[in-house]
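Morning. Coffee machine broken again, so started the prediction first thing and wrote up yesterday's gels while waiting. Chain of 332 residues, entered below exactly as on the submission form.
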Amino acid sequence: MPIISMIGELVGPVFIYLQKPTGRLGPRIQRSIYHANNIYVTCSKSGKLTKSHIQYWAEKVLRPSVADDCLLLLDSWSAQTDPSIYDKIFTGNIKCEKLQIPPKTTGDIQPLDRYFFRQWKYFKQRICDRIAIDRMDIDITSRNSILKMNSLIQNQLTARKFSPMIKYSWHSSGYLQNDPSQFENVQEDHELADHLFLLFDQLLNSTELLVDNIVTLDFDYYNDDDDEYQGEDNNEDLTSIDGVTNSYDTMCSIIEYSKTHTFLSLRNRYKNIKSKEQLRRMKRYVDSQGTKVQKLRCIDEFVYAEFIRARESSLSVHDSDVRRLALKKHAA
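Came back before lunch.
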């Protein structure tokens, strides 16, 4: 349950409510639960919000995040529209006015539902897809995994690059007249989503998170215009052994022929073979899997098989996934 402002910012920590049969977090759970200063955690028996949770949210999350008079936009759910909830906590010089969205219009004029939640859910789905694609032994449904994931998503969406996206949530709902024009959303930045997963993977073994600053994610890759860019070697499929150049496939044929024929017969068939030592070196080379191109063929076959498996499982696969799978096979 995040809060967004019309100036394009996430306000305060995100409020997370878990399902717990007892309706409370006992001492043992409170000691083991993941802690971060950008999430506020509570629970209920059903896993759904009640009026008491809204009172708790208003007191612990909303009020500490407001330093001036504000206008609070609420949907028509009765548990959160009771004015007494806010009158009790907004006393003194700071005033909180309420504006209620009409019933059955949340999908049209509620900024979170209209656009922002789509970006949040994409981050979440991308993390789940990565775990499935890479066959990682991670229980994404565990309590701490859920908390860590949402804490990390909240942290990344506070980056300034997403401010126009948050403003657009208000504009598309009809509250801001000026269109924030071109902006980058989460779904268009696959590299950012992958970087987020790497951070999430590191968080899995941590017990708490202190958010001290916002990390700007920039990704630069070499292209053909870079001075340091090196193009592919078109001749890398050819290898020289003792001054004689052959393709990998030719060397394989020579080795196979030598298994069933004498060396004299081999020399008559392959004129460039001069000695048995040369043949032995060629065999050692072939046994070590040969050229880089041949190794790349193995990588291509692995990546293709993994791609088909992911698509059959209805998982989203991007270019960054293909690169990562190739690097994984290369390092194996």
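The first strand starts at residue 14 and ends at 19. Going to sketch it on the whiteboard this afternoon.
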